[in-house]
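Holo prediction — D-serine.
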Amino acid sequence: MTECVFEQTLLRGAELLRQADPELHDLLDQEQIRQHETLSLTAAASIADPSVLVCDASAAGNVTTEGYPGARYHAGCRHVDEIERLAVARAKAAFGASYANVQPHSGSTANQIVLCSLLRPGDVMLGMDLSSGGHLTHGAAASMSGTYFTAVAYGVGADGLIDYDDVARISKEHRPRLIFCGGSSYPRAIDFARFRAIADDVGAYLVADISHIAGLVAAGLHPSPVDAAHVTTTSTYKQLCGPRGGLILLGRDAGYRTASGKTLADTIQGAVFPFLQGTPRLNTIAAKARALATVASPQFRLLARRIVELADRLAGALADNGHRVLAGGTDTHMVLLDVSGDGTTGIVAQRALEACDIIVNKNAIPGDRRSPRIASGVRLGTNILALRGMDPPDVTDCARLVSTVLREVKTTGESDYLLDEAVIDLVRAEVSELCRRFPLPGYPLPSPLASGYRSYAG
Ligand code: DSN
């Protein structure tokens, strides 16, 4: 039995849960088994290392406080202060930032904090249209960003790529006070320097949301916006293999004076607390610190390289199988498919694939006439395939299985379909074998980030 109080508590907690609440214990167990036994090509997810999960489950979450290390509004913070300082230092190191705030509860919250600190209600903001790949918080009508501010949108050209001249034209016409770049379903590299020039031309703040590509940025496989944008935001659970949460980062503009006379760093610090958030989740901040340590490791760089290689192979294999891959392919972890050419809808593709234990998500595509609940596309990603240790030929197999389902599904309504049981059985058997050959990190093997993986060796 371990001597460590922290470890004893977590082990005892798991045992107590099993005895006292078998229903919940069983659901949690089933969820972890589901993750292991299904092939997740979810672009917006990764798998947190068990060492991250235990931080999130730790007693640091019992600490109620407000404020920042050394300047809290409650007593009893000496250890959580050190934990938060560690997370800040690791965030700055991972991204080469001069300022990091690790308290945002999510990437969306981070964006809302930035918007509310730099804009006044009604101010004009410019962001990428949702169906072109933007995010709800970048000015979509359904979100606070498009309701409290006057949101203007840019899209993508017929080639699926950002037309920077068009962004500059829209920006000059509407003169936004803030421009968002980055998004949720844009598979190509983003030219942050070009965006900064467009923002500077009209005196706008540039905010880069790198939630989807944060791992590639940290690994140096995508240009970093940290010095190009005034502010960079990210969630920590997508490509950083961390807990549910967000980060706000500043680079060379940390000392930039806003209209109020305060620096950007002071503005963001006060906007997170006390302006928009209350108590920080210190357990989650500990988990961010752990994930950010792994992000700085050589293994993570190899993982990131593998993520991009696998996505390139996935896009190529799906195109070879006759599917319409948008934006002509990918520079990231993400592949966008227009499934209308397969005679189906995004929601049918998602459901039929899930019936075969393949997890993707429906996604609007540029110019989509369908509602986001139906959508004409699906978004796929390779974060989890790389974490499983797959090689490019294994991803060709994954693409073949996706193609089999898309070819065999009979779409009988916008969200209804028929799929032969024999096809389901066949695909599920192959998925099961792939999942057995490539177990998730921590289930039951140690994480590749901790131990190195055979596939990363070369
Ligand atoms: N931002 C959403 C997505 O990309 O799916 C959730 O993380």
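READOUT: Residues 44, 135, 184 surround D-serine (CB under 6 Å).
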